[in-house]
Predict the 3D structure of the following.
Amino acid sequence: MQFGIFTVGDVTTDPTTGRTPTEHERIKNTVAIALKAEEAGLDVFATGEHHNPPFVPSSPTTLLGHIAARTENLILSTSTTLITTNDPVKIAEDYATLQHLADGRVDLMMGRGNTGPVYPWFGQDIRQGIPLAIENYALLHKLWRQDVVDWEGKFRTALQGFTATPRPLDGVPPFVWHGSIRSPEIAEQAAYYGDGFFANHIFWPKQHTEKMVRLYRQRYAHYGHGTPEQAIVGLGGQVFMRKNSQDAVREFRPYFDNAPVYGHGPSLEEFSRETPLTVGSPQEVIERTLSFRDYVGDYQRQLFLIDHAGLPLKTVLEQLDILGEEVVPVLRKEFAALRPAGVPATAPLHPAVLAAQEV
């Protein structure tokens, strides 16, 4: 099973000091967090894609390409690649290039994002979000698998005899997760292609996540890709840890209360009860994360959000040390012991797919 972190790349004032990092600092700090993730023994670093303040990761492939040059083992991913407002031809080119630079250590998560104004900025209509996601991914899927593509759709100009370059590394397209918080159409899309489904599980109660994952698993089997239990599932989550849970709650509360996404709403206690947010000791994080299996089944990737809401870099790096030393080793062992034979432990990423083709 793969464990890692994802970032949304927000530039947020630290509520305890009143200091706001510059965009330069936030970008450089994001690189430092990724490097620390590899040092801590985590498997994955994923960045979001945003084109509006207070966020900075508007160019994920630039950021991940730089991180690729400074790491050796870390899988580089996205926690959203905007399939609706990016041109699928450019996605095909950019992520194939990144795949070559990273020697195959690349996958990506397709999503629609949650920022409505981005659509007109890129010449699109938010009311067409689902049809855009379906059509654009159909084209991207073909661009990575066919050397010469003829295409005609509703949302972009037609292609005739087009070849996307570079071609995917070793002829193996990057693995794709389809990320969704609330849209069953996206779970259906992931199942249709036999791709992964990532339920970014940080805003909704477990009953909703359970329904979405169950739908994906059922439809994955319906399309003949394997049993429901063999479907490839990822989950998001958010944690903040200290040795004593009381210290964790006391330290994290001002950041939660002023967070740009969920601040000034439900209390920390309410949000922790209704969503996967876990603020407490490492043991509490272990127990809460293991409980996700009770309602989604055995899954392949767990990503944690740990750098949101103005948390200073020093604190984030401390969180990574705790994850790497106290939490992830236990989770690896426990999830492996529970996983039945025949259920994949990880997504079919480039090295495994290439090795299978060479047999």
Q: What stands out?
A: The mean pLDDT is 94. Residues 313-338 form the longest helix (26 residues). The longest strand covers residues 233-241.
